[in-house]
Structure formats: structure tokens, C-alpha cells
Specification:
Layout: E1 5-7, E2 12-18, H1 19-29, E3 33-39, E4 42-51, H2 52-64
Antiparallel strand pairs: 1-2, 2-4, 3-4
């Protein structure tokens, strides 16, 4: 698994995920804050902001999608 997350401050992380994976995880993870990557009018990926406690859950779910 490629490292797809970065620490923003002591308790906040930014996680990059593809749009198809985001659509699968959005409801389950209850993601509040996102940034979209758009190409030719289509959303291709997201950066999601998660706290330190939620990061482990997000990374575990991403492993299920081989991300």
C-alpha cells in the first residue's frame, strides 16, 4: 500500500483516495471535510480530512480496497 496520507497538525490528517473508493466509504466513515480533484468536469479523487482517532479506521478500510 502506497502512503496516501499526510499529517497536517498534531491531530489532523489528510488522506488521498480515488473517487470510486470515496463513494463506497463516504457513508460508512461519515466524512465531513473534503477537497475534490476534478478533471474534464469529472471528480477523479478526494482529499479527506480526518482526526488521529479516525485515521486508523480509514487506512484499514482503504486496505480492503487495495489502496
Amino acid at each position: 500500500m502506497e502512503k496516501n496520507y499526510w499529517q497536517i497538525n498534531d491531530d489532523l490528517y489528510k488522506v488521498y483516495i480515488s473517487a470510486d473508493v470515496y463513494n463506497e466509504l463516504e457513508e460508512d466513515l461519515k466524512i465531513d471535510e473534503t477537497a475534490k480533484y476534478i478533471k474534464d468536469g469529472d471528480i477523479i479523487a478526494y482529499d479527506i480530512m480526518v482526526d488521529k482517532k479516525k485515521l486508523k479506521k480509514v487506512l484499514k478500510r482503504l486496505e480492503e480496497f487495495d489502496c
